[in-house]
Amino acid sequence: MGAECRERISLLRERMQREGIDAVLIPTADYHNSEYVADYFKTREFFTGFTGSAGTCIVTKEEACLWTDGRYFVQAERELEGSGVRLMRMMEPGVPTTQEYLEEVLPEGAVLAFDGRCVTDAAGSDLEEKLSGREILFRADLDPAEGIWTDRPAMPVSKAEILDVCYAGVSAVQKLGALREEMKKSGCAAYVSSRLDDNMWLLNIRGADVECNPVALSHLYLDQERFVLFIQEDAVTEALSEYIASCGGEILPYGDFAAFLGTVTPAGKVMYDPDGLGYSAALALCERLRTVRRHSPVQGMKAVKNETELQNLRGCYLRDSAALCSFIYWLKNTADLSAETEYTAAMKLDGLRAEIEDFRGLSFPTISAYGPNAAMMHYEAGPEDAAKLQPEAMLLVDSGGQYLSGTTDVTRTMALGPVSDEMRLHYTLTAVGNLQLMDAVFLHGCTGRAIDILSREPLWQVGIDYKCGTGHGIGYYLNVHENPPNIRWRYAPGMREDVIEPGMIVSDEPGVYLQDRYGIRIETILECVEKETNGDGTFLAFRPLTLVPLDRELLMPEKLTPRTREVLNAYHERVYREVAPLLPPEEAAWLREQTLPL
Questions:
Q1: Residue 208 half-sphere exposure, CB side, CA atoms within 13 Å?
Q2: Residues near 561 by beta carbon (within 8 Å), at least 6 away in sequence
Q3: Which of helix, strand or coil describes residue 261?
Q4: Considering Cα of 49, then 53, then 58, then 62, what sign does the dihedral take?
């Protein structure tokens, strides 16, 4: 693969030479800033060979570099071998950001090219600011793969479906009304969005155009009288056309979006989210219309689940947890480990989920990582290269499903046999962090940065950190990673940092990742609830949605704090009480053993 990437970069440089381009920026993105991109949009992977879901490549006349974060350092180092692409480990000492690198390498008057549909307005504007005064010319009309990627896959398209209000809880007309009220408050006559999960949630529709994300490629224009949904013609059914019309909207072809922005004449300012609209689209708006750039109000609306969504989610997580408990029972009691691999274990779990009645697919490709492979946070085993399981060490499984009743995400790390005392210590410290956050009580007004320390502190005490956030928001039959909720300790410029509200769903997933040795992660999904209100304010807490036991073989009871021991015992009792009725008798008996008080 390395040689192929070298050749592709060489062809790109030939084009750069012909067109007077000094550098090309290639993000991991589609036209909607999706976290996971369809094969058609995997241009960065095409040129570098790096298959991780996050990374940015810059190609200059002299070198090619790839930036990615700590989740992918081990994977990227392996996959870039032989490609000639230099790995830039983001946020490590001495490693410049992409903007700092461009400031350093681009001469005065240089030409920087990129596909302005795949770079957000926020990122493009930030580049403009960082490179201001250097007379850098931006070319936002370059698709780097054009003419080089000759066997490029087709643009993904699927039939869009209408999500019944018994799942959505609130009608699209009501949601559109709430958004129009937000527009009025901001003094705006119109709203433009390219965020797929926002558009899907707002209109109560779903699709299958992005792997594991039930979304349809689409753009949206909304004013006080009407809205326009731009969607691929092959995605449109007669039912969808009638439904959109009944909500006061119309459908136009997906490819007409850019031309529409060049002609639309709203009766006032246009609101858009710079993180949710492409740089080229924003330029088209700002050249001729008055605009208001602000965080998408839709994100805050959908992050707080309504009561119907919450009720559905609670049942969804119960059924999903039962499937994972069945998987762990199989793994520890009936599986012939010598005949299993990481991949076959993942297929077993995926099959158990598929038996749940309203299952619609995975929420992300199942991560089944044995031994050293678990040190790579987003490792994915294939059928040919999966490691064989052995009756020793640990297996980390991070998995989730998409259901009409919700989106799930859960990680458990299991002992397959004898483990070292160090493994047990690190697992227990991870468990302490997980339980401390699960047990958190905090005042309304806190953001995730106020409570991240609860998960991280037990590991910091022994000089260990995990190079990712502790928690993220989760959608309702939408994206498994949903903004704005997040739990992390570090502030990054431009990062959205919203208050945690009752009804938000967040993950709680501390871990230990020791390169070439092992990885541990415990992920429990939490519902934020109101605990009490008194003269000191409104106190919030978390209630676990995930109901899957922690591994007793990996716990050192003496390393638990008195409080976390209480929390774990209470959690395990609830796991048994609620999950056991969904299991066959032999699995229920096993679950009773796993959830006895420590």
A1: 8
A2: 432
A3: helix
A4: negative
Which residues 6+ apart lie within 8 Å of 161 measured at CB?
A: 205, 206, 207
**Is residue 524 a contact partner of residue 433, using CB atoms and an 8 Å limit?**
no
Are 416 and 396 in contact by the 8 Å Cβ rule? The answer is no
DSSP per-residue string spanning 358-373? TEEEESS--EEEEGGG
Nearest CA among 545, 543, 549 for reference residue 593: 549
Compute the distance between CA of residue 303 and CA of residue 461 in angstroms, rounded to an integer. Answer: 33
Tokens 């088209």 belong to which residue?
284
Q: pLDDT tens for residues 441-500?
A: 999 999 999 999 999 999 999 999 998 999 999 999 999 999 999 999 988 776 778 999
Helix (H/G/I), strand (E/B), else coil: 594 = helix
Euclidean distance between CA atoms 240 and 528, whole angstroms: 34
**Tokens for 466?**
């995990």
Domains with residue ranges and CATH for the chain? 2-139 (3.40.350.10), 161-301 (3.40.350.10), 304-592 (3.90.230.10)
Residue type present at position 233:
E
Summarised one tens digit per residue, pLDDT across range 205-247 is: 999 999 999 999 999 999 999 999 999 999 999 999 999 999 9
CA–CA distance, 470 with 459 (Å, rounded to integer): 12
Which DSSP string corresponds to 85-96?
A: EEEEETTSTTPP
Residue with tokens 């309504």: 306
How far apart, in whole angstroms, are the C-alpha atoms of residue 451 and residue 224? Answer: 40
